[in-house]
Amino acid sequence: MPQPLNYLKETASQTAGPYVHIGLIPAMAGFDIFEKNFSNVLVTPNTKGERITLEGKVLDGTGTPLRDVLLEIWQANANGRYNHPADRSAGALEEEFRGWGRAGSDFDSSLVTFETIKPGAITDKTGRKCAPHINVWIVARGINIGLNTRLYFSDEEAANAADPVLNLIEQPARRATLIAKRTERAGKIVYSFTINLQGPEETVFFDV
Amino acid sequence: MNAQAPALRDPRLNRPEPFTPPLGDGGFFQRDRSIHPPAHAPGYKSSVLRSPRQSLLSLENSISEITGPVFGHNDLGPLDNDLIRNYAKDGDPVGERIIVHGRVLDETGRGVPNTLVEFWQANAGGRYRHKKDTYLAPIDPNFGGCGRALTDDTGYYYFRTVKPGPYPWRNYVNSWRPAHIHFSVFGSGFAQRLITQMYFEGDPLIPVCPILTTIPDKDALDRLVAPLDLNASTPFDSLAYRFDIVLRGQRSTYFENRTAGN
Can you give the residue ranges of the Intradiol ring-cleavage dioxygenases domain (chain A) (predicted)? Predict the structure, then answer.
């Protein structure tokens, strides 16, 4: 017998359940408890870059929107730099821009929204250019382990066509499930997205 | 002297510095999905329509997954890890006073320092402070049910609360959740993000819970059950439970542009 490999094993995931808001967005559960709360607004007045609104829904296998879903996003700043010590790329860091936010779907409209900036393009560790994208993590009642996906931008056609991750998706039609659509509404730039958990238009989810 | 001999030496031995693996910016160990619940677990009915049918697309970790949000003490308030006091209006909440403590580790056994741990739970009667919870057990006016903590330099966290009660839910006609506390943990990279639930040693509802038994691996299930920890209890004040959380290990990066790991 060889020596045993004494790695620990990851703690198993469990669903976030229907009352996830209590812990992660208490105001949505209906009470106020913390002095400082995390939110779906990633920007301050000083944040550099194009202000955008992300707005979308998450649908179940019957096309019904989830009203109890929670999304988190993680993104680079306008220079393509993540606010994390492991990112040593050249783009300038903005201390004030954490690059992370969380949002619950509205209990009535089921819309999920974020106020952020459009991220810059990223160079991966092998030197390839990645199209601007936002990393998305989805939890809810009925979701046993958080789902990872990405949002790309409809006005970045050339960059999307060259993106190494989009090009890993074998069926070109499925790549379209990750592209948020740019529109303008009352002078604001809005990117709309739909995440289909299941079915013919199922969104591509990643094992990251 | 054989002129060729030096060429046979391991080039690493000629490094000016000792060869010490940095705790670097490598990707994370691949997630072992056999210990996690499958997306589609029909005994937990709401998973049926909320589970992808297509395969997940495996993605080699890039800077997008290796990085993740960084939190600091200025994100938290002084009572955030004390559920006995952080919503107290005119007294302490009703219930069994407990301390929950443990370490956040990665699969290599290293503590995960300065990472955010969030937790939420029902009150002692199994009632959540949530506008969508209509269970007939009453709200406790002095109990909110949520808190958060940053791990210290060794990955250690602790908080104080009351032990939550079991509660019924609409799955089968007579389904009851075991007493549990929900946990949300970040780690150092977004790919380590994890939500789970902690259960309590000896609870007879554990083996019959349709959510807990979505986990296919008996040992993985047992690791969600926190043992009573009398060593950490406070006499005449609080019992204690110990709950260690393991996040994915991180590969060191020995050489640029090589994916071999170590």
Answer: 54-82
d(CA A42, CA A107): 22
Q: Which two tokens stand for residue A115?
A: 């106020």
**Domain presence at residue A124:** yes
Does some domain include residue A184?
A: yes
Q: Which residues in chain B (116-155) have CB-CB distances under 8 A to chain A?
A: 118-120, 128-133, 144-146, 148
What single letter denotes the amino acid at residue B34?
Answer: S
Mean pLDDT of A160-184: 97
Q: Are B177 and B165 in contact (CB under 8 A)?
A: no
Burial class of A137 by CB neighbour count within 10 A (0 to 12, 13 to 18, 19+): buried
- Mean pLDDT over A114-126 rounds to 90
Distance from C-alpha of A125 to C-alpha of A88, rounded to nearest angstrom: 10
Q: Which pLDDT band, with edges at 50, 70 and 90, does A130 fall under? A: very high
Q: What is the pLDDT of residue B2?
A: 43
Question: What are chain B's domains?
Answer: 73-246 (2.60.130.10)
Q: Residue B249: its chain A contacts at CB < 8 A?
A: 7-8
Determine the Cα angle at B231 with ends B246 and B212, to 5°.
Answer: 40
For residue B18, the model assigns a pLDDT of: 53
Nearest chain B residue (CA) to A100? B69
Q: Answer whether residue A84 is part of any domain.
A: yes
Q: Which residues in chain A (34-93) have CB-CB distances under 8 A to chain B?
A: 34-36, 38, 60-62, 64, 66, 68, 72, 74, 76, 82-89
Contacts of A105 (CB under 8 A, 6+ apart): A57, A58, A65, A66, A67, A68, A69, A70, A71, A111, A112
Q: What is the distance of C-alpha B157 from the center of its chain?
A: 11
pLDDT mean by block of 10 residues, chain B; 262 residues: 44 53 69 97 98 96 94 97 98 98 96 98 98 97 98 97 98 98 97 98 98 96 98 98 97 56 38
Tell me how many domains chain A contains: 1
Please report whether residue A155 resides in a domain: yes
Q: What is the CATH number of the domain that holds A75?
A: 2.60.130.10
* pTM score of the predicted model: 0.92
